[in-house]
Amino acid sequence: MKVLVPVKRVVDYNVKVRVKSDGSGVDIANVKMSMNPFDEIAVEEAMRLKEGGKVTEVVAVSCGVAQCQETLRTAMAIGADRGILVETTEELQPLAVAKLLKALADKEQPQLIILGKQAIDDDSNQTGQMLAALLGWGQATFASKVVIEDGKATVTREVDGGLETIALPLPAIVTTDLRLNEPRYVTLPNIMKAKKKPLENVKPADLGVDVTPRLKTLKVSEPPKRSAGIMVKDIAELVSKLRNEAKVI
Ligand code: AMP
Known about the structure:
By secondary structure, this protein is of the alpha/beta class. Helix content is about 25%, strand content about 25%. The protein has one domain (about 1-245): Rossmann fold, CATH 3.40.50. The strands form two sheets. A nine-stranded mixed β-sheet has the order 9-8-7-10-6-1-4-5-11, sandwiched between helices. Strands 2-3 form a two-stranded antiparallel ribbon. The radius of gyration is 21 Å and the shape is globular. Adenosine monophosphate binds near residues 97, 115 and 122. The site of adenosine monophosphate has 23 residues, from α1, β4, α3, β6 and α4. Keywords: Electron transport, Transport. Pfam families: ETF (PF01012).
């Protein structure tokens, strides 16, 4: 069984991004880029399924600029068998990525696609859902446990009131939540090994996909500045301030 794992190159989660002065977006020139953390969890889960004998091949896919190769090499250092870069300098929105992944799924015929629940740069939380709709497959989003058995996936999902367990036939889409697993550290020998793994390069046109953006960003602005906190002497003063100044109780 083959698993496809889409991995996105995003601004590293430790970087404090700045909004450009013209409000057209955030400044990503010269900032550290890394694999989207939820996608690391997705690669880790695919590896655990492979190590558990449920999966025979793990293919990582990244869509975007040439530097996404680094993200694919990281996925291969975690253990993915090969990588596919869909190379474009166009801005890619979730619908375009979902269409690219649909075209690749048609070609590669995986039984399972594990995506991150959301990319930490655009916070869209859309690609997995759109891909499931385009493919006509079932989807289990926000997974905190995945079991593959007898041609079906049993997935525990993190929902508002607690945990929900659902079963879905394969092929299927799963999106990862934070508690699914803890990704392993990438070791130097595995980084070296990853350099020799196959990395295919295709263009959106090769897949017959039009990636033209459908959404236009009108404005990006900084969140309002938070005022500094104050120290209170005792609970009575705290209650008085909450009641008379903040007027929240
Ligand atoms: P989003 O819908 O943008 O929040 O992204 C959700 C998930 O879709 C990510 O965690 C990735 O698994 C996948 N994804 C989104 N954009 C890309 C991309 N450009 N290349 C590869 N995978 C992507």
